[in-house]
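Continuing the batch. This is chain 6 of the set; chains 1 through 5 are on the previous pages. Same settings as before, nothing changed between runs. Recording input and output for traceability.
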Amino acid sequence: MGIIGILSSPSSFLKNDEMNKIRSVISSGSGIFHYEVEKHQDITEALMLFRKSDIDIIVIIGDRALTSAVFEHIIEKNILSRNIPLAILPAGDNNIIAESFGAHQSEPHIALRKLLLDYHHKENFLNKIIECSLIKIEGVRGVGHLYGLFFCAGEIVKQKNIFNRKILGQSFVDYFRRKFKVIGLIQSAYRSALSRNKLEDAIRINRNQRGAVMGHFFMLSITTLDKSLWGIALDPLKRKDFAHFISIENTPESVMHVGKEFLKGHYETKDIAGHIITDINHARFVLQTAFVLDGSYYEACDSGEILITIMDRLKFIRLS
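Output for chain 6:
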């Protein structure tokens, strides 16, 4: 097999000596270029090195700030001469993306060790490579725009334990833990939906230029992945340059319905009052509340308006 490039962010691992464990795994391997990113401009230097070294895959081990910045460099600076597959390992607020790509453990050094073993010893490794479009979000306070794979807004973003939780494994115990956590979330959301919605929590939506609607939502999500929160499976996209759009109104009836979908483990696309799932290629939101991109929280600029566009397709590696 070829050479692996690894980008890591030591500032993402301030506890449990995780960064030293990652370094130990890397030092025991071979054919690896490892670049520890401390500043935004380090990414340019690292990608240029990877290009000269003819890297075959790039592994990202760091929180959302690193992942989004790598996406930006690939799309806007076009440093890489080809579409090199990316592996995104669990790292704090990157857990949602890593889990969507098949990670079954929260410890980055364990995920890295498994990835290196798979890469060097399995002939079917190339079968794990898939393509996903990026989501570009414009109008983000403080940074202007960002790139990612999973956007979420609505009442659900107040449940911060969902977005910073550790990845559960595949054991029966973990299976039931996941179910109990979903039940707890739905119970909390149902009680919240019974209360009066606040005017400042209203969100205005315009998708695919079909006219705007305004309302209160338990969840709004846009993703190009084939899974949503809690690993809920989504039907395949009908077009490659589109993304899944899901909206659930903040009413007791809609919350109970989405709870059933969560427990079932798969969204159905049939039309149900207060629950929309469809494919889009762009959307415009006006909101005064925070939103989540790939596990991290952001706010819109003063106008409250954000524009979401589906961008170039990149190659990613399924971790299992």
